[in-house]
Amino acid sequence: IKKFPKLQELAENSARVLRREFAGVDIRTDARGNLKVLEVNRRPDFEGFELATKFDVAGEVIKYLKEKWEQSINRR
Residue 13, SS3? Predict the structure, then answer.
């Protein structure tokens, strides 16, 4: 996703507006190539994205959650 910083920014901002740390954000381009948010889902579904990009989203989410958990343990 780092290859598409505008796409990442739009997805992150869309989730942030709805106060979601995790969300499925459906984005398309219009006829002029402008990015448009179609919807933001509370329960993201990674299957189609993972098939299209070969990027292991679920694995990255697990790594992120593990890091957050370890940080919370170390703060105690």
Answer: helix
- Classified as helix, coil or strand, 27 is strand
- The C-alpha angle 73, 21, 65, rounded to 5 degrees, equals 35
Q: Do 14 and 40 form a contact (C-beta atoms < 8 A)?
A: yes
Length of the chain: 76
Is 5 strand, coil or helix? helix
17's tokens: 């507006």
pLDDT digits (tens, 9 = 90+) for 4-63: 889 999 999 999 999 998 899 999 999 999 999 999 999 888 888 889 889 998 899 899
